[in-house]
């Protein structure tokens, strides 16, 4: 599902809340509904990615503030596992009256897409020699099989806790199951609210975006979940067919005004082994060819930051900032610096990483991978890092990595709290 950065981050938070509820479905009628539903989720994802020829994934969401419409979006993603094809269409509608549409098609040799901000019909094309579009594999990855998934699942199990007791599970006559339930404000543990507040700020409030199109309230205080309700349907084969959920998040803005953000989301799998993907016909259309690897240019020179956030006295607080500076860019190389600026009294939370770097943006990068570079860590040892472009001029920094080959790396990070997403700092 490719979509705008704003819609993606909001939907990511909403889906997180949905998963939070659906995976908390309990043993009211099944003995261990929590484990049953988790198994169903894993089985569904594994089936559609490995054992089904193709499928369509549909999603939609709508967000309101105190009952007033803000934004809604819908997405259709088609996946063909046999042909290594992916097609996605996303439509977002805003309270300002603006509507954006994003389209993308990928196979092993090419990626074709339309920019949702373009006012004319124009297609962008990236061609991959020797059918070497490695990015296509990102659309077929099972999240439960990625590095760190087991640890994340154990942490999630611990957070869910007693919420398992608020859900009902019903066996259907056709052999399937229906999971339903709701959680009220008083039933949401303080830890869940703290984590939800943190991730909401990280995924929505702290990210530059086009949220002005729908006047998103700047929630700063007392952010908490006030209500969650959901329903999930599992068929007789043990696969989740669709999930419906509503999440209400409450909080106050800087002026002390109360807001209730209601977020409705629906996701479902359709046309399993019946999905047809058609490569777009761009003959006679206006096109622009783009390097499949992306190229840094002078637009990226500047300062990028993100917050260093810690848990102190049961609350998330800002301890300082990570700073990434892009100092010089030419057709061959990128040079910059990474360091941290801590608030007074929080110096102990610094990683102590402070280094300058230079990397090549050519295929024959001596470090073995495009945009990879070496640096010296605080203990005096040499480590490898990598920098990549993201959307809307943002950058992603990965430190302490291992270069496996010219197409793949393995990341070890410099601490579990490290955040590699850096956002441009603009002068007013």
Can you put this structure into words, describing what you see?
It is built from 4 helices and 21 strands. It has 428 residues and is of the alpha+beta class. The protein has 2 domains: 5-270, no CATH class; 298-424, no CATH class. The protein has a 12-stranded mixed sheet. Helix 1 runs antiparallel to helix 4 (190-205).
Question: What does this entry show, briefly?
Answer:
By secondary structure, the protein is an alpha+beta fold.
What is the element layout, followed by pairings?
Blueprint: H1 5-22, H2 33-51, E1 54-65, E2 68-80, E3 85-94, E4 99-106, E5 110-114, E6 122-127, H3 149-160, E7 167-171, E8 177-184, H4 190-205, E9 219-234, E10 240-253, E11 258-270, E12 286-289, E13 302-312, E14 315-329, E15 333-342, E16 355-360, E17 372-376, E18 382-389, E19 395-405, E20 408-411, E21 421-424
Helix pairs in contact: 1-4
Q: Termini, distance in Å?
A: 34 Å
- Mean pLDDT level: 78
Number of domains: 2
Q: What low-confidence regions span 5 or more consecutive residues with pLDDT below 50?
A: 1-32
Instruction: Label the structural class.
Output: alpha+beta
Biggest sheet: strand arrangement:
7-8-9-10-11-1-2-3-4-5-6-12
Query: How many H/I helical runs?
Result: 4
Alpha-carbon Rg, integer = 23 Å
| Overall shape | globular
Strand share of the residues?
35-45%
Structure keywords:
2 domains, twelve-stranded mixed β-sheet, nine-stranded antiparallel β-sheet
């Amino acid at each position: 599902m490719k979509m705008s950065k704003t819609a993606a981050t909001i939907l990511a938070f909403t889906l997180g809340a949905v998963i939070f509820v659906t995976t908390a479905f309990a043993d009211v009628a099944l003995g261990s509904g929590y484990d049953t539903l988790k198994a169903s989720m894993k089985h569904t994802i594994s089936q559609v990615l490995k054992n089904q020829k193709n499928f369509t994934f549909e999603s939609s969401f709508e967000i309101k503030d105190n009952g007033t419409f803000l934004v809604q979006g819908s997405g259709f993603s088609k996946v063909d596992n046999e042909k290594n094809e992916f097609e996605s269409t996303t439509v977002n509608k805003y309270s300002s009256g603006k509507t954006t549409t994003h389209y993308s098609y990928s196979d092993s040799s090419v990626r074709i897409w339309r920019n949702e901000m373009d006012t004319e019909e124009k297609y962008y094309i990236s061609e991959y020699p020797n059918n070497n579009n490695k990015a296509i594999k990102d659309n077929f990855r099972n999240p439960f099989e990625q590095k760190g998934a087991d640890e994340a699942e154990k942490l999630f199990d611990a957070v869910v806790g007693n919420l398992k007791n608020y859900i009902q599970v019903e066996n259907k006559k056709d052999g399937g199951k229906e999971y339903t339930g709701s959680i009220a404000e008083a039933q949401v543990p303080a830890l869940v609210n703290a984590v939800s507040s943190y991730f909401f700020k990280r995924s929505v409030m702290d990210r530059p975006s086009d949220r002005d199109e729908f006047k998103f309230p700047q929630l700063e205080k007392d952010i908490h979940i006030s209500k969650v309700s959901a329903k999930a349907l599992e068929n007789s084969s043990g696969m989740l067919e669709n999930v419906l959920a509503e999440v209400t998040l409450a909080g106050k803005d800087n002026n002390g005004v109360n807001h209730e953000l209601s977020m409705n989301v629906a996701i479902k799998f359709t046309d399993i082994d019946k999905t047809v993907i058609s490569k777009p016909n761009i003959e006679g259309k206006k096109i622009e060819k783009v390097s499949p690897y992306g190229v840094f240019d002078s637009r990226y020179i500047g300062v990028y930051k993100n917050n260093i956030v810690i848990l102190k006295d049961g609350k998330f607080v800002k301890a300082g900032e990570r700073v990434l500076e892009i100092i010089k860019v030419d057709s061959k190389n990128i040079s910059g610096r990474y360091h941290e600026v801590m608030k007074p009294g929080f110096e102990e939370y610094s990683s102590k990483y402070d280094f300058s770097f230079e990397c090549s943006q050519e295929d024959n990068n001596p470090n073995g991978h495009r945009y990879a570079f070496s640096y010296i860590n605080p203990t005096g040892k040499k480590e490898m890092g990598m920098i990549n472009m993201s959307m809307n001029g943002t950058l992603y920094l990965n430190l302490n990595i291992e270069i496996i080959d010219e197409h793949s790396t393995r990341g070890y990070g410099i601490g579990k709290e490290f955040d590699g997403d850096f956002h441009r700092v603009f002068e007013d």
